[in-house]
Design a protein that fits this description.
Blueprint (H helix, E strand, L loop, with lengths): L1 H11 L2 H8 L5 H25 L4 H6 L10 H15 L17 H18 L6 E2 L2 H15 L5 H16 E2 L1 E2 L2 E2 L2 H19 L3
Antiparallel strand pairs: 1-2, 3-4
């Protein structure tokens, strides 16, 4: 049950990129400012939690055992979303891609907030290794479909592949697992931007 709650909380953060799409008052600069503030607050909370051992009930419910002495997933997700929001501002709020560089930030965020929790519910809780093939395929399908309304199909497929790789493969660097909450939005946004630029879209 706790895992389901974690995934639902994770998915609820979709309101951040979707607010830009559907709420006229939410401009991209305002969204960027919100994410920066959220990341600063999260940085403070994580610093206190790790250094002092803050034992709030919400941390006990929403963090995993391996995160006790490492940055939590919510924090890394905030970092990833903030990074793509600043690095890849969209050129239009429309669901239909406009002229100029493709608006890759929004689908990259949705790949984190929707495709990742779906993958987590379908797959195992292993921290390392590669997920099962059918889970990777499902993740790819969800991630790609999330991107289709925002970018051309070839770019969406490239983003889906990148998000699936980031989600399904858990490399370990010096004993630390590279958390997909950080890698999914960053890698998918970079790949979509590169492919769109290469294709002149």
């Amino acid at each position: 049950m706790e895992e389901v709650v974690r995934r639902l909380v994770h998915a609820s953060t979709s309101v951040v990129p979707l607010s830009y799409v559907f709420v006229d008052a939410v401009t991209w600069p305002r969204l960027q400012a919100f994410l920066v503030v959220a990341m600063v607050v999260a940085t403070g909370l994580e610093a206190v939690r790790i250094a002092v051992g803050l034992d709030w009930w919400i941390f006990r419910r929403l963090t995993r055992e391996y995160e006790e002495d490492n940055p939590a997933g919510y924090f890394l997700g905030a970092v990833g979303m903030t990074a793509v929001a600043i690095a890849f501002p969209p050129t239009t709020a429309s669901l239909v891609p406009g002229p100029g560089p493709s608006p890759v930030a929004v689908p990259a965020m949705l790949m984190l907030t929707v495709a990742d929790p779906v993958s987590g519910l379908l797959g195992s809780g292993d921290l390392e290794g590669v997920k099962q093939g059918w889970v990777l395929l499902a993740t790819f399908g969800v991630a790609t479909l999330l991107a289709v309304p925002f970018v051309p199909s070839m770019v969406a497929v490239a983003g889906g592949v990148a998000a699936t790789f980031a989600d399904g493969v858990k490399p370990v660097v010096r004993g630390h697992v590279v958390d997909d909450n950080l890698s999914i939005p960053v890698l998918s946004a970079v790949v979509m931007f590169v492919v769109a630029t290469a294709l002149g879209i």
